[in-house]
Each structure stands twice: as structure tokens, then as C-alpha cells.
Write a structure and sequence with these properties.
The structure is a homodimer. The first copy, chain A, is of the alpha/beta class. In chain A, about 45% of the residues lie in helices and about 20% in strands. The longest helix of chain A is centred in the first third of the chain and has 20 residues.
């Protein structure tokens, strides 16, 4: 069998499994999920041994400390993974929910009900916890998954998938509900992306290069999680202490996150006093600053000159672009031109300014007087997330279980025919 | 400027227009729509002259009568087009609708509100009414459109777009809200499909070849309207007269429609008597029948032998595949293997059988005792439709105005930062 045929076999098997999953009741799914959580803990030794094998190979290859940290599992991280599975079991089942119902003048009764999407492909990089997180979220929402993880985490992913499959299987998980692609070469991504007869959706999780490759190849819908070039706009009407607190939170608490701030925009009327306050604080927190000529002149040493490129950069570390803007409209125009439609904040005490900003800015999450870091499934109360969509179709912003479903219309008649 | 640059300029202009459209209130949009309807009628002579030019060229090229009919406009069809624009004006504006609102324990208030998608590309074939229908539906839902019609209808499309742009413009339509691509070569489709920096969505409307081309090239989401291989399943518990009426309606009232039936499945217990009733009726209605050996033997001459290929065929005319199935599960399995997830009917008096069918069959619209032909935006009460999606992501089944929108989250805080 060629590689293509072997991947297609996974697709066929996943499709068959998805038909059983679509009809499984919530109680049964939750029992299987709890068995999976137990299974992860029961196989701790095997999973950590497999992870040690991956880590040793990654160290030998000279991967960066940040990469090694993403790859690393320990008893605490494994326990968190199992706890995540239990939390998914506790969430309400989205499948079967009635989204709308109405009756037509001819007596036809129409119900719009949530159904699973079908078979979902997940293509991801080095974090082995994605194997468990993605598989259980998709399972709870009635979908079969085909997981294709990165080569660095291959042994870890294999051990985690085996634990889920075996513990789940003993509790009634249909065969092939959760399948790990046993190949990590690039061609396997291509074959997955081309088999739109079996995969209803692909979700790539990882760097921009991976996502662009999947988008280019995919013949089925892709939900993307591109970069976050998030803005904090400090309006003329801002409370300076609140603006400082929000900016520091947005920039420094997790700079590698997509919901971290990358650019500070300041209304010209607030600029002088706010810069005097914030620049020493940011510099003290280790943030590298890039600003316009006004700032470079006023704060030589502290602020480097910003190029066009700076305003399009997702630093993913402690870098911050700064720009003084004439007014709110100029802030919105900057966000439209340079932003990635992810998360943008206005800090102001003026409700009219806030309303104008929240309406005009076309981003997944727009905030008034709160940190960009709240663009997150957990913080929204979704319990968990499969990512933060930067798309505008199907799912936008934090994705929870409902975003892993579709719908169908069930129509009940008494013999009606169309005129 | 190269062709690619000229198409990209349309994209840039559409993006700028979409920002104005997103903030336009419903009253203003409706005034513009009514002006557009008037504009179509005021320019009747020009539009029909342009259409006559297209028709003459199409006749000279030897296009089929069906193709010529699709292309043809007359005063009645133009009036219907204008009336469609007025009906869109009368529909509620989806933009700004609050889809959900909740408060988090930390006091953050989250609102999920409908927003336009942005810039929508429509790629279509010979029907000139799509120019108006698609443009006004997208406009009402706050989106800019870039329309790329087929070469056969080029003069008609140009005249219709000019009428909409000029009459709309005089009433306040922002420039470039509705743009017609002035090129009809294949390369223009490629350039549109590749400019995901400007287009948020592409909707191809036309034959399977066009849709497949767009899917292969597109870097942005595509909402597809593939074929309908729709089934009528006559259960053991069917009322035979109702089954006959539904089948005839589904097969013969508009066989070229995607929601027409292509395959009849009959439970073995109902087969003998139902075939004896229906086969003469179908034959009398001019329907060509393809069935299994049982049928060919019993009705020689009336029923030709069906191959595997028959059961995968969308006839688009008066052809019908027939199969006797052992039970409801076998009917569902046949639909899963051969269907296109479009519209499927069960005819039965048994509520348990109906419930099993409506739950197990994974199609956009599943019906109990009603014709497949009800899978239609108008019949669902959506007022109008941009098509019937065969996708499972974002929109499934008949698409109305809400399906042309996205959403964003507006979050209001009092200075909250994330722990």
C-alpha cells in the first residue's frame, strides 16, 4: 500500500467511526471520557518513558530550550492533561441541541439541530498535550479525529493515543474514533489535506509556516489560528493607572501567546503624560520599545526607531511597537492596516469613544477597559478550547465544543409537496 | 498594470468599501436598495439591449436551448429581478443582532454580535440575475462584493452592475461596494482565488467543474453548492398514495434542480405493491427507470439495469435509480454510501422509523413525509437565498442573510487584567 492509500484507509475508517459517534448519547460519551482520563494516569510510566525518548532525540538535535519545554511531559503535566479530559466530560453535550424551530404556513415543521461535523483532521507541531486535548474535544462533540503530530513528539503522541484508544475502547469507544497518523513526513500532510472525501475539516495548530502549508494544500475547510498582532489604544479619556495595568498585563504576562499585545497606540492629547509614566515602567520590565521620531527623540536609548515592519510584527517576546495617533479614527485606521483582527483594546472613560471603537474595529474580540489576554476559551467560560480562530467563517475567536459542530434541518410533514 | 494587479486593485477597493458598509444603518441600506430596484427598471432598454448582444453571440456559438434560456432576460424577468431587490430591502437587517450576552465572575460583560463577513467574491456562470441577487444580498448583510460572471453574460452583467452602482451611488452607496470584474478569462478566477488578503469568502455558483476549480485554487474559505443526489425512501409503514405524490413531486416538477430526487429506495415489505402502483405512473410521466435485477425481471422494457454508477448519478433530468432495501438501516447505509448529503425523505406512518431516519441520515435537510423540493430558502421562509450549501462548516442547506454574516465579541470591563 502506498503512503497515500494508507492515509486514505485512516480516512475511510474515521468516516465509519464518525457514524457511530454521531448517535452516541452524552452519558456514554462521558463514561468513555472518564475511562480515558484514568487510562492516561494508569500509563504514566509508559508515556513519560516515550517522552524521555523524544526529549533525548530533541536535545541531540539541538532544539531550543523553549522547544524542549513545549515537548516535555512530567507527572504534573500529565495529571493536568487527565484533568482536562475530566473537565470535558463535565461540559454539556452540544449534539442534539435545538437551535431553532418553526412552522411554515403549509404546516411543515422545521427544526434546526446541532450535529457533529464528522471527521476532523488535526495537524500540529511539538506539544504532545494537543493529542489528548484535540481528541477528547472532538470526541465529546461527536467527531472522529485523525491526528498528525510533529516528528519531535512522535513517541509521546503514540503513547498518549494508545492510552486513550485502549482505555476508551474498553469503555465502548468505537474503533478508529481517534487515530494517530503513524507517519510524520511532509507527504502525509499533503495526503490528508487532499482527502476531502473523508475529512470534513482540518485544524492546523502551530506556526505560520505549518498553517500556510495546510491552507495551500487543503481541499476541505480549514479553521486557522494565525498570529495575533493585538493593539492597546490609550484614548484621550483613559485612566492612566488602568491603562498602565492593562498594558503591562497584555504585554508581559505571556508574551509568547497570540493574545499578547504587540502595539501601543496613544492619543496625542494623552501622549506626553502617559509616555512619561509608562516608558520607565516598560523598560524596567525588560520590554524593548520601538517608536516614532517623537519618542526616539524624547527617550533616546529607551526607544528605538520603528519601521513599517515593526508595526506588522508579532514579537512573541518582550518587544512593543508604539505610535502616537491624532485621534480615535487614526487608531482604528492603524489597526485596520496593521492588525490581524485578533484582539484590540480601548482604554477610556468616555462611553462614546468606547462604542465607536467596539463597532468600528473588525477583530474577533474587541475590549473596553480590559486586557487582550482575555481572548481565551477558559476566560470566556467555554471550559476549554481547541484554539482561537482568526477566521471569520464558521468560528471566530475562542473555539469551544459548539464550534466543533454543524447543524441539520429536520422537517416533518403530512405529505406536503411543492407547488 | 498586470491582470493580477488590476484584480488586486478591485480587492483593495472592496476592502475599503466594506468598512463603510459594516457601519451603515438598516434604514440607509434599505433606501439604497429601493433606489437600485428603481434603477434596474429605469434602465430596462439598456439592459435588454446588452442581453440581446449576449444572446446573439451565444446563438452564433451554438449554445444549447437550455443555456440560451438561462441567459435570456425579458421585461418580466427584469421586473422579477427588481422585485427581488425590494424583497431584500424588506427583510430584517442581520447586522448588529445580539447572538448571546453573559457576564463572567470577574465582572467582564461579553456580547456576541453579528457583523458582516467583509468582502465576498462571487464566481458564476451564465445566469445574469445572479449579478443582482448576489450583490444585493451581500450588500444588505453589510458586505462588499466582487462579481465575476461568465463570458456569455458579460454585456448583460455589465449593464446590470452599472444600473445598481449608479442608482445605488446616487442614494449613498459607497464607491466600490459592488464591483464587476471586467475580465472573463480563467486567469481572473485564479487571481481572485489567491487574494486572501482582500477576499474573506468566495461563493462559486455554477457547474461542478467551476466549483472544483475554485476549491482547488482558493486560499480563503469557499462555500460550495455541489450536486444533490437526493433520496426518497418508502418505508414498510408508508402510505402508498402519499409516497406516490411525494416521489412524483420530488422527481418531476423541476428535474434540473439540485433538490430533485435521483433515487427511490423501497423497503422489501412494501416493494411488490408499491412498484406495481408507481412504475406505470413514472413511465407515464416520462421518467427513465434504472433498477436492480428484481425490477428488470418483473418490468422488462420499463426498467433498465442499474449499475453502481447510476446510484451515484445526478440525472438533472427525468432519470430515476431504484433499489429495494432489506430495512431502514440498509436504506440509511445506501444514502451514506451514495448520497451527497443534500436532501433525503422518509415516507412512513411509523414515528419510530421516522425518528431513526431523521437522526441517522447526515444530510443538510432530512424530511419525514414531505418532498425533497422543500430544501429551498424561499420554502424555509428565508425570503431569498444565495444558494444551498452542501458544506457542513459555517452554512449548511439554504443560505439566507444571516449566513452571509460573521460575529465578533465585544467585551466591556472596568480595568480587569488576567491573573
Amino acid at each position: 500500500m502506498s503512503l497515500r492509500e494508507r492515509i486514505q484507509e485512516l480516512g475511510r475508517q474515521g468516516l465509519a467511526a464518525s457514524r457511530s459517534l454521531a448517535l452516541m448519547d452524552a452519558g456514554h460519551k462521558n463514561r468513555i471520557l472518564r475511562a480515558m482520563a484514568d487510562g492516561l494516569l494508569a500509563r504514566e510510566a509508559e508515556i513519560l518513558a516515550a517522552n524521555a525518548q523524544d526529549l533525548a532525540a530533541a536535545e541531540a538535535k539541538g532544539l531550543s530550550p523553549a522547544m524542549l519545554d513545549r515537548l516535555r511531559l512530567d507527572p504534573k503535566r500529565l495529571a493536568a492533561m487527565a484533568q482536562g479530559v475530566r473537565e470535558v466530560a463535565d461540559l454539556p453535550d452540544p449534539v442534539g441541541e435545538e437551535l431553532a424551530a418553526w412552522e411554515r404556513p403549509n404546516g411543515l415543521k422545521i427544526r434546526k439541530v446541532r450535529v457533529p461535523i464528522g471527521v476532523i483532521g488535526i495537524i500540529y507541531e511539538s506539544r504532545p498535550n494537543v493529542t489528548s486535548d484535540a481528541a477528547v474535544l472532538c470526541f465529546k462533540s461527536g467527531n472522529a479525529t485523525i491526528l498528525r503530530g510533529g516528528s519531535e513528539a512522535f513517541h509521546s503522541n503514540t503513547a498518549i493515543a494508545a492510552a486513550l484508544q485502549e482505555a476508551g475502547g474498553a469503555a465502548g469507544l468505537p474503533p478508529h474514533s481517534i487515530q494517530l497518523v503513524p507517519f510524520t513526513d511532509r507527504e502525509s500532510v499533503r495526503h490528508m489535506a487532499e482527502m476531502n472525501e473523508y475529512l470534513d475539516l482540518i485544524i492546523p495548530r502551530g506556526g505560520k509556516g505549518l498553517i500556510e502549508t495546510v491552507v495551500r494544500l487543503a481541499r476541505m475547510p480549514v479553521i486557522k489560528h494565525y498570529d495575533g498582532i493585538c493593539h492597546v489604544y490609550v484614548d484621550a479619556g483613559a485612566d492612566a493607572a488602568m491603562a498602565e495595568s492593562i498594558l503591562l498585563n497584555a504585554k508581559t504576562t505571556k508574551p509568547s501567546a497570540c493574545n499578547a499585545a504587540e502595539t501601543l497606540l496613544v492619543h496625542q492629547d494623552a501622549a506626553e503624560s502617559f509616555y512619561a509614566r509608562i516608558i520607565p515602567v516598560l523598560t524596567g520590565a525588560g520590554v524593548k520599545l520601538y517608536g516614532g521620531p517623537d519618542l526616539v527623540e524624547k527617550y533616546p536609548g529607551a526607544v528605538s526607531p520603528a519601521t513599517e515592519e515593526n508595526y506588522r510584527t508579532e514579537y512573541l517576546d518582550l518587544g512593543l511597537s508604539i505610535k502616537t495617533v491624532a485621534d480615535l479614527e487614526a487608531a482604528v485606521a492603524h489597526i485596520q492596516n496593521y492588525g490581524s483582527r485578533h484582539s484590540e483594546v480601548i482604554v477610556t472613560e468616555y462611553p462614546e469613544a468606547a462604542a465607536a471603537f467596539l463597532n468600528a474595529v473588525d477583530s474577533a474580540v474587541v475590549l473596553w477597559n480590559a486586557s487582550t489576554r482575555f481572548n481565551d476559551g477558559g476566560e470566556f467560560g467555554f471550559g476549554c478550547e481547541i484554539g482561537i480562530s482568526t477566521d471569520k467563517l464558521h468560528a471566530r475567536g475562542p473555539m469551544g465544543l459548539p464550534e466543533l459542530t454543524s447543524y441539520k434541518y429536520q422537517v416533518t410533514g403530512t405529505g406536503q409537496v411543492r407547488a
